[in-house]
Amino acid sequence: MSAAESSVDVSVVIVSYNTRDWLGRCLSSIPLATTSRKVEIIIVDNASKDGSADEIARNFPQVRLLRNTSNAGFARAVNQGAALATGRYVLLLNPDGWLHEGAIDRLIEFAAANPRYIVCGGRTVTPTGEMDPRSCWAAPTLWSLASSAMLLSTLLPGSKLFDPEAMGDFRRDHAREVGVVTGCLLLMSIEDWRKLGGFDEKYFVYGEDADLCLRAARTGRVCAITPDAVMVHAVGASSATRPDKLELLLKGRIALVQTHFAGWKAPLGRGFIIWGVWIRALLEKLGLSRGTSWREVWRRRPQWRDGYPPVAATPLGATVLAGKG
Description:
This protein has twelve helices and 13 strands. By secondary structure, it is an alpha/beta fold. The chain folds into two domains: 7-237, Spore Coat Polysaccharide Biosynthesis Protein SpsA, Chain A (Alpha-Beta Complex), CATH 3.90.550; 242-304. Strands 1, 2, 3, 4, 5, 6, 7, 9, 11, 12 and 13 form an eleven-stranded mixed beta sheet that branches. Strands 8-10 form a two-stranded antiparallel sheet.
């Protein structure tokens, strides 16, 4: 059956990794997020050790649950879930958040009304209701990387000139084209997803959504968000500890630059990223920066300075598919 013939409107794909305490609220919000669409929910559990998969199987038998016997990484797990999708759209949703009423309906209506938008996102807010700007970003440039390296984006967060990727002049209060839609709330037609090949699996975690959006932009279409589709996002609830998270972020950042910056711009962009970490580690050593882990991250630089290498397709451990589908 083709996507056009499917009776399912949207396949919601969620990757779980030790998110048992969040999943219940996330899943319970989905029926309220749509009143007119047929939804299927696919969860890929990345070998959680907190009983997440058992909790899903016990309390949400309608969910299609794929259990990995090892942590496959975020990008690969999403691709596993999307491969099972039968909906006309695929919606990526983070487990450490929940949707506002009508969010799925609004997001699909936005995508359907604007066919030039190949990737669509919504507006994220914090659990206290404040705007969370991380639903979208501008695409990285040499200037944005240099501004970060020189701490300009840190000293002047949200500056249109010195922190351009943050899009500080955009309150996420109106529909707008953007460079990157964050993977915590990301909608595409399943046909476009498959034409692009889904996520590049070399990104174990972080950077895969930016890579997808930059590849999508090469089709001549654009990415955009609508403020009418709202998600509450407890950012980082499922992330690793700080040095480990920074290391993964840097690997993804460098891989993105090396993939999408042409010619001499790629090594220069990579150099800006490495230089920025060295400056932060030096300031920490001098006692001018406290409560951070940059010296440890700098010590680990052999592990992240070359980014994520290309990956060969390797088989995963056995998986068990449960749920009614």
